[in-house]
């Protein structure tokens, strides 16, 4: 039986990135009134100089505002300013699900040097009409704007309908700039996000005319009005008991956040250029030992990273004591096999440009 070598971490940035994941996941369980934590120092530079706009759909309160106020729909007509958002079969509120997953994604992006702009400041009050959010995304000059939502198909339980989907605009869009951007880069960004979700093991939606994870609609102002590449993501179906459970629990939210972050990285950063992988030090004709894969080499384990790293990450989430978290990161975190940690970093953040300091 082959014996795995202990994992050696050569960079404090790796532990910082893991701490970002654990700390952000723990923050999800904090009261909604807690102030957002300041952005941590970047652990990597994969997204340095890039802006990402994140729109956690809906809002906690419409006090002082009219949800039915009529605003431009991007097609020459009008539509309601906002809606309350869905309520899951388990009682989960869509606006909170969207907000909590967005916070995890924000932490992951910022760990790679991205500037993240949010459409709303918290999950306590008003978040703005749909046209205002689209205008904010356009003003941000973001490399991509991602709207996070969770669908609902019935008031009661719906075990049959499940899965994620991306909504893209019916073309052409009246605004020439929007039509040009969303027909090219917007579609590319949406398909990249779709591919990230499929790779993470999420099924594409089996309802509402969704085809290979993509649904075309003309009534979504977020994509009809936004002048930067827009991704409108329905994470899952809150009417489906299994998906409602996953969308509202910390471990499930972390898995969704991993996939969203990977989708954004895949689009904004693009594929790692060929020829950047360092040569393997393995002697020709011999196989690498488990846990000793050469940094930067192609490893199919990365595709299965979500399934392999979640048990360890769950330990971090379950701990309520910061000292215990730090102990896990500095001790057990270094005992996780090189393949698992490599997969975690690649799938979640794509740290170090695919060249992980492990060995």
TrEMBL record:
Keyword Nucleus: no
Keywords per UniProt: Hydrolase, Signal
Record carries keyword Phosphoprotein: no
Domain MurNAc-LAA: 134-265
Location of region: Disordered: 67-89, 271-303
Gene Ontology cellular-component terms listed: outer membrane-bounded periplasmic space
Signal peptide boundaries: 1-27
GO molecular function, one term: N-acetylmuramoyl-L-alanine amidase activity
Single GO biological process annotation from the record: peptidoglycan catabolic process
A Pfam short name: Amidase_3
Domain of life: Bacteria
InterPro entries for this protein: MurNAc-LAA_cat, N-acetylmuramoyl_amidase_3
Name of the molecule in the record: MurNAc-LAA domain-containing protein
């Amino acid at each position: 039986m082959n014996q795995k070598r202990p994992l050696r971490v050569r960079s404090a940035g790796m532990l910082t990135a893991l701490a970002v994941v654990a700390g952000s996941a723990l923050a999800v369980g904090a009261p909604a009134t807690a102030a957002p934590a300041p952005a941590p120092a970047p652990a990597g530079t994969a997204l340095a100089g890039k802006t990402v706009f994140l729109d956690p759909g809906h809002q906690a309160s419409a006090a002082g505002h009219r949800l039915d106020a009529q605003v431009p729909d991007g097609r020459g007509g009008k539509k309601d300013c906002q809606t309350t958002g869905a309520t899951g079969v388990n009682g989960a509120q869509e606006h909170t699900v969207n907000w909590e997953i967005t916070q995890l994604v924000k932490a992951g992006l910022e760990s790679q040097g991205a500037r993240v702009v949010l459409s709303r400041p918290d999950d306590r009050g008003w978040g703005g009409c749909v046209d205002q959010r689209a205008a904010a995304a356009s003003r941000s000059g973001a490399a991509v704007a991602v709207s996070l939502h969770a669908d609902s198909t019935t008031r009661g339980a719906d075990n049959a309908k499940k899965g994620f989907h991306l909504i893209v605009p019916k073309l052409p869009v009246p605004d020439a700039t929007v039509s040009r951007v969303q027909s090219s880069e917007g579609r590319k960004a949406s398909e990249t996000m779709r591919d990230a979700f499929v790779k993470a093991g999420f099924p594409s939606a089996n309802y509402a005319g969704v085809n290979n994870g993509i649904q075309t609609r003309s009534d979504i102002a977020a994509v009809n009005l936004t002048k930067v590449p827009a991704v409108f993501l329905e994470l899952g179906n809150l009417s489906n008991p299994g998906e409602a459970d996953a969308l509202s629990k910390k471990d499930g939210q972390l898995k969704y956040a991993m996939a969203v972050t990977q989708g954004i990285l895949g689009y904004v950063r693009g594929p790692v250029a060929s020829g950047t992988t360092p040569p393997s030090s393995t002697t020709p004709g011999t196989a690498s030992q488990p846990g000793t894969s050469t940094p930067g080499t192609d490893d199919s384990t990365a595709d299965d990273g979500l399934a392999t790293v979640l048990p360890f990450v769950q330990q971090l989430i379950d701990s309520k004591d910061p000292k215990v978290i730090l102990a896990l990161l500095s001790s057990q975190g270094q005992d996780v096999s090189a393949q698992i940690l490599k997969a975690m970093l690649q799938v979640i953040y794509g740290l170090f440009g695919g060249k992980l300091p492990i060995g």
